[in-house]
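User: Hi! I'm a student and our assignment asks us to look at how structure tokens line up with a sequence. Could you show me two examples?

Assistant: Happy to help. In each example below, the sequence comes first and the structure tokens follow. Example one:
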Amino acid sequence: MGPADKPVELVAGDFVRYPGDQPHVYESLDGESLVHIVVSVPRVQPGTGGAPVAHTHGES
């Protein structure tokens, strides 16, 4: 799992952190696996050219 050019072999309880905007791979070497994927996206500041941030859960 991880960056396509430098994947990391993980065992139960391990984690890896890498930029998601680069090519990456997921492969189970032991058949079926359970993974938990967390994606963090920074807020775009006004005037930086990014897309507007959608508000959810009643935020204003």
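Example two works the same way, sequence first and then tokens:
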Amino acid sequence: MDKPNIHKKAPVEHIDYKDVTRLGALVNPHARILNRRRTGLSAKAQRDLSKAVKRARFLALMPYIQH
């Protein structure tokens, strides 16, 4: 079964914490960060994603949880 690879459809050099629409595609409906198998990111890009999501949450650009 082939899962969609979000990152390979629209590759980026830098994952920016201010780009909440792109970050929103990389979290599930409960606002949890998707794993590497689902995102298709490399280990370094996944770490960058994690930092970006956490920064966006801290600055109140993204919610910590969804109800």
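Here is something you could point out in your write-up. The chain has a mean pLDDT of 87.
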